[in-house]
Amino acid sequence: MFTIDDGFYDHHDVAARVFDEFGFPLNFFVITGLLDQQLWPWDDQVSYALNHSRSEPTDIRLPSGTVYSVNLEVNSAKATVKEIREALKAGPQTEIYQWLREELFGKLGVDFPSSTPPEYRPMSWSDAKSLRERGHGVYPHTRTHRILSTLNPAEKREEIVGSLKRVEEELGYTPQVFAYPTGRPADYDSGDVNELGQAGFNMAFNTVPAYVRQGQDRYQLPRFSLPENTADFVQIVNRFEALKEKLRS
User: Fold this and answer.
1) CB 137 within 8 A of CB 114
2) CA 151 → CA 155, 172, 189, 216, distances in Å?
3) What is the rounded CA–CA span in Å between residue 20 and residue 25?
4) Which CB contacts under 8 angstroms, 24+ apart, belong to 71-80?
5) 9-14: which pairs have CB atoms within 8 A and are 24 or more residues apart?
6) Does residue 93 come out as left (phi exceeding 0), alpha (psi in the -120 to 50 range) or beta?
7) How far apart are the first and last CA of the chain?
8) pLDDT digits (tens, 9 = 90+) for 195-227
9) Residues of the chain with pLDDT > 70: what percent?
């Protein structure tokens, strides 16, 4: 089974067409606020800001209160993006979109785009309907892509139930599958699992790189990331990695 997260335009325009060609379903976990054109993901906003920043060193105050020194003459934009993203994953995310506009973009001297940059534009809900009609799956991936474990119970509920309702409204069916933003074990907790069950979901995926096995918690199903080389891909898909695990044990 293949999955793809977020809901960008090229997921529909490119990826889905490849899977159509081979008659194989692809399962899309979409950020409903992205498809509603209310936002573009916070982690992509970090990348955009750093890649459009002036080179002068500056200090930014993270939502956690920690001061992070940005110096693109010493540390590359790519490395800085990675470090800031990791720091933001570990801190409070309630006001992260406001923080991005006011602190990160402001301190870096980057104008906040008046509309979603072309490279981050979403697929439309009509695209999502077309995917379903062609045999693909479309499921919620929260409203805003904020990490659930950093939010309070009311915010968790809105991310989970709110995204469920938007999919119901736009696609005319009730989804029962969910994927956690970022998906590491630290990115969700028992409260999120309980909320998913109460909302009617019967399974959820994280991003732990492992095979799905009988008896696993159906709200913590693992997924391998797409490997960067063909040999690793073939080993995973053909379950050769599972054989190696058995041999090691």
Assistant:
1) no
2) 6, 29, 11, 26
3) 7
4) 77/50, 77/51, 77/53, 80/50
5) 9/121, 9/122, 9/123, 9/127, 11/123, 12/123, 12/127, 12/128, 12/130, 12/131, 13/123
6) alpha
7) 26
8) 999 999 999 999 999 999 899 999 999 999 999
9) 100
Give the type of residue at 115. Answer: S
Please determine, for residue 91, whether its predicted confidence score (pLDDT) is greater than 90: yes
Q: How far apart are CA 226 and CA 29, in angstroms?
A: 15
How, if at all, do strands 67-70 and 58-61 pair? antiparallel
Rounded to whole angstroms, the Cα distance separating 148 from 187 reads 6
Q: Is the pLDDT of residue 190 over 90?
A: yes
pLDDT at position 38 over 90: yes
Report yes or no: 53 and 108 within 8 Å, Cβ to Cβ: yes
Q: How crowded is residue 242: how many other Cβ atoms within 10 Å of its Cβ?
A: 14
Buried b / exposed e across 13-51, counting CB within 10 Å, b at 16+? eebbeebeeeeeebbbbbbbbbbeeebbbbbbbbbbbbe
Alpha helices in the chain (DSSP H): 9-10, 16-21, 32-35, 42-51, 77-90, 96-99, 106-108, 125-133, 153-171, 190-199, 230-237, 240-248
| Residue 163 identity (one-letter amino acid) | S
Q: What is the pLDDT of residue 122?
A: 98
Find tokens 């800085």 and name the residue. Answer: 80
pTM: 0.94
Tell me the C-alpha distance between 236 and 210, whole Å. 9
